[in-house]
Amino acid sequence: MKKTKHSSKRKGTSAEAEKSILIVVKAMGSQANLEKLFPLLEDDFTEAVIHEALKNLEQKGKIEMQQKGRLQLRYASRHQEETEGKSLPPKGAKQLQGIVDLTKSGAAYIAIENFDKDVYVPAKFTKGALHGDEVLIEITGHYKKKPEGKIVAVIKRNQDTFIGTLHIHRTHAFVQPEGQRVTFFINIPLEEAKEYETETKVIVRVTDWGKPGKHPVGEIIERLTSFSESDKEMKMILIQNGFHISFPNKVMKEARSLAQAVSERDCKDRLDYRDVTTFTIDPEDAKDFDDAISFKKLENGLIEIGVHIADVSHYVTEGSELDKEASQRGNSVYLPDRVCPMLPEEISNIVCSLRPNEDKLTFSALFHFNEKNEIKHITIAKTVIHSNRRFTYEQAQEVLETGKGDYAEELKIIHRITKSIRQKRYDSGAISFEKEEVRFRLDSVGKPLELYIKHRKDAHLLIEDLMLLANETIARFGSKLDQNKKHSPFVYRVHDSPDASKLEQFSLIASRFGYKLSFDVENPKQVAATINDLLLKVNGKPEQGLLEQMAIRSMAKAAYTTKNIGHYGLAIKYYTHFTSPIRRYPDLLVHRLVFELLQKGKVDIAVGELEEKCKTSSLMERKAMDAEREAVRYKQVEYLSDKIGNEYEGVVTGVIARGIFVEMSSLLCEGMISIENLGDEDFVFDEKQLYLRGTTSGTRYNMGDPIRVKVIGANLDTRKIDLEKI
């Protein structure tokens, strides 16, 4: 009976298949091929219809069939243009693409690009999808004005690696992965499992996902022997956010084959800056030095400042194993106790790192400044440098403050010039976000001994201003018309204007602290001036952290794209990322594009292919931010786990019916005071005004109220911190 019901299901038409194929190929990017395409579509279309649709798309010039069944978009699908700006997906819409946010109950919410509402998928219709997976969904209806749907297919897994416990039985073996959102076993071939003891902690990689409802098959790639709970959690955070914690053998082999020393042949056709004063300024624990600054006084009275960036593209060539791995990772991830690098350490810390007293290959932007700190000439070129000195930020700051030490005169002049550059940027409407960051001092096993707040000083700003200048300069160069009087495809870092409703919400919260804000969304300079004025007023006050976070959240998210719309936060029309190719894949792409423009006056890559790379990079950047945020939260809870009973000053950052959230100001760490720990009385929650009021005392708890709290609990499993009012 089931077979009859299945065979009578309506199969889609060729026109419908064409739309589905474009979505799938676009989602898969460089991984798209016929072998993977057919299983994703066979439930909805016959094989003959899929073949017909492929033929039609090829004839229309929308896709290109390449060797080994590989599929390539000729230009971007119209799907994005057709759906852009819609707030609700239509019922019955065919196979929209989205990212899974899996809940503890097994149900999921699917975030779809260009829709402002997530699609709810009941647990029975998730088709084995995991948190963070890219999926195709179909809208089945709407419930309370919210879209509901089912997952049709998993396009791309967010993670294929898991940490878990190996269980060995007489006839079979499996790994039970850790994590509340993982509800399946991973079967392990019994012969392989017998090399280990049962109950061993292992890292396992899935080799065959199988069909939905069936347990996948995997292989053990690492035994976790001597490890701390913190070490395991950090690895799990990376893995669950889709990052590999080790490099494949073929990638490592390629990395080790690269020559560490620069030869004279490498220096051919490069500007030689080895005899020009050059130095780096980086964090104390940094090893991947990807930028250096040179200084030279010219005969015409001008000052030349060179921004030299590691020429990673010289070593990591397009299509190589290193390139494929870097494109998948998207960026390096910086956790409190480790770095998960985009490139192997042989490259990031040795071959490409601009270490002192070594010849290094660089890609540079050279600026000539006059006595008024104005740029009179710019050169973009490949160079070779020899760094004279490695400064930490603290060392450079001491030279700036005392006027004494290595290169004191050079740093003083560069500081003067960059201060002028920064002021011009603010005058143009740039927003001065000075976000505070949490840092930890750890012991030998990664346990936090001290938590402190990182503050940026002049040495940090000096480097930041020069990097911003270089990025803007490169973006302007990339935006120029090519030799065919056309705009070549290019990678931009864009930042859209803020949503008026978010600014209104920010204004409301700021008013709770006594700050009256008025925004004119049609006037970017006015918005920037208002926010900058507020950030200046809150500096050093208890509410600083909260309001800085709210100001950032009121802005749109920056992203990578080939469609330039400018950068709102920096108040500039052209911006890209060029200055960190060791740790960001878009920067590596930009290096290749700029060099191609310098060599040929045009670039050959299709804009659709480049847009896909931008999209992947933006996604991996968000995943890296999530991982970094989760790791910091874990370390904060771990730090407070032996501080039960300690008291801290804080500020109320949120109010709900069950209690209030408080950020402890000296730790930038949020905990919760439940109703039971607020006092021996009942409370009324005002949902519109967002406050709790005691029915007996009349005491009100509002957003922004200062409060003193005691830590009464810190749970590493739930990442929750419990507080009570003092």
Structure description:
- There is one protein chain.
- With 726 residues, this protein is α+β, with helices and mostly antiparallel strands.
- The protein has five domains: 9-77, Orthogonal Bundle (Arc Repressor Mutant, subunit A); 80-156, Beta Barrel (OB fold (Dihydrolipoamide Acetyltransferase, E2P)); 253-493 and 564-629, no CATH class; 497-555, no CATH class; 643-725, Nucleic acid-binding proteins (OB fold (Dihydrolipoamide Acetyltransferase, E2P), Beta Barrel).
- The protein is built from 20 helices and 33 strands.
- A hairpin with a 4-residue loop joins strand 8 (161-168) and strand 9 (173-177).
- It is globular, with a radius of gyration of 28 Å.
